[in-house]
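Notebook, student rotation project (T.W.).
Task set for the rotation: take a protein with a known small-molecule partner, predict the structure of the complex, and write up what can be learned from the model alone. Partner molecule chosen: zinc ion. Sequence and SMILES entered below by T.W., checked by me.
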Amino acid sequence: MGLIKKHNWRTHLSSLFVLAGLCACGFPAQAVSTHPILVLTNAANPFSQYYSEILLTEGLNEFTQANVSTISYDSLAPYDMVILGESALTPVQVNDLSDWVNAGGKLIAMRPDKQLAGLLGLTDAGSTLSEGYLLVNTADGPGIGIVDQTMQFHGTAHRYTLSGASSVATLYSNALSATANPAVTLRNVGPNGGQAAAFIFDLARSIVFTRQGNPAWSGQERDDITPIRPDDLFYGAARLDPQPDYVDLNKVAIPQADEQQRLLANMILSMESNRKLLPRFWYFPYGFKAVVVMTGDDHATGGTAGRFDRYIALSPAHASVDDWQAIRSTSYLFPDTPLTDAQAAAYNAAGFEISLHLNTGCADYTPDSLHMLFTNQLGRFTNTFPSLPPVATHRIHCVAWSSYTTLPEEELRLGIRLDTSYYFWPPKWVLDRPGLFTGSGMPMRFAKTNGSLIDVYQAATQMTDESGQSFPYTVDTLLDRALGPEGYYGAFVANMHTDSVNSPESDAIVNSAVNRGVPVIAARQLLTWLDARNDSTFDSVGWTNNTLSFTITASAGARGLQGMVPIPVGYRVTNIAHDGNPIGCSLNKIKGMQYVFFPALTGNYSISIISNVAPLNITAILPRAGVTDANRAPDISLTSSEVMSASTVNPNTFVLLNASGNVISVLLSYIASTLAPVLTPTFLLAPATTYTAVVKSGGRSPR
Ligand SMILES: [Zn+2]
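Predicted structure of the complex:
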């Protein structure tokens, strides 16, 4: 903890004394631990493993995963922070976690076991809420920078009331109706900096279902347009089973899953901030906030070559394909598309991707029939284009999606690692609303209905030339929300059919992207990037004397990988070095937090910070220190060397203590002319008693 100023006086007889406890502003030194974060999983709930996928997507690649059954107090001790997947706990595990938090550990519990309620500062309200909404507190704390509108969650939340915790987000029973219960909470525990936070629903389960749709609707033909497609997993208005849409399309502009992941990331970083700063990787190369993934389906009509030529013509001279400077794309095609193997090889060498468009005849499929179709058509594809590398990404014809994960499971068996078949369609449902029907602009791996991971990325197609979407309105809206204050970053996949060479929609998308400095890439380039970024690691994260140290092992394919470290308010970077040599950096505000960005190369890093501001100098307090005849109903005011921000002066930073050191109840107000804060006790102070006013400063200081 940082600067603490105390000011004592007595209401009657007393000697004069002032405690001015002044310590160096900063953070305590901390021993090096290889990975500061521990993800605790539970074999009975594979969704608990999905937190690792979430952390990787958020670039927090400094975690270890372990089964909750293996923990003990000693095994927890090396870690700063635990992400506890939803899990029933034994009383011993509850004790170990509680002791570890009381010793200074930082716990984030997902849909916690009710035995943790006391530690979390919650009281069980004895009921549940399913399929509700949450509203993040964006005025203060880790919610700053997250969207200030309600967002959906899927699954069942336990209702609690606050009894010691503060609310980071409020539970809503629908988009407009708040409950008295929190959705996300945070509590300070004990004198050692421990904190216990909770999501009262299973965030990972909610994110998977938000991204992939309602598992209860798997295999249902809900929109009455055969075959069964991904939109059927979200489409509410089925003739025989009318329900609300699984994605509230009034919210389709908001990447609801991404924003909730980012709230988790903000909580991790802010809770950790009095221990050490934690490094992250940025989502895309070179700090790009948005990328267009251009694809097109070619049903053997042969526009592919001409379209590729157009993208070459639109690319800047000497553009580097590997650095995402050239306009490149994927064509998914039927094997009998008119294109020679030599043409295919040349385009492939130039950075275009030519891949299979599996044709089921627009029919539903079973795992077996799908396997047969792939065997047949991949064989024909390989025979036609023997010079091409193995198929790596895929979109299925008619976006047939007969069950929740049959297709990605089969793709994984075939070595296909990225799927673009999730498709914002049909027009009667899209209604020309630009948005993210999977709640995400982030390619992440699929999970089965039980939560277990499938090592195939879902990159949803959010722009098509058959969804009734207007262009450039659709692409402009998506890109401007990614680049602008909303911060809805993403990889936005387009299907601009390559059946014909010309596509006005494709031209509009490329034009909008180029004008905004947004890259246009093939799906295979995105896959290469995702694997390389996920394989890159932070290790040996240490913190000594306001200097963060860590090593990066950057995967060879992670060209343009960017590291980022949050810089606390009131601090600035004095030195940033890679293997002992100063490197360039830049500052960027992301979701309410200021970060220093730097090239993430393999090697050892050190980043030093220093307080940016002189300590707040309290110039006067009334009643004066040591006054022995103070009014028993005083207005306690303070004057400082600079104007204090009302947002930083609150009942946690300006407090009145009784002789026992306990905080007593006061009203906080301000002198209008000077904005100087004033405490007024809510009851008469006791005679012949010393009271102490305390102004706290430091990481969350009054300014
Ligand atoms: Zn097709």
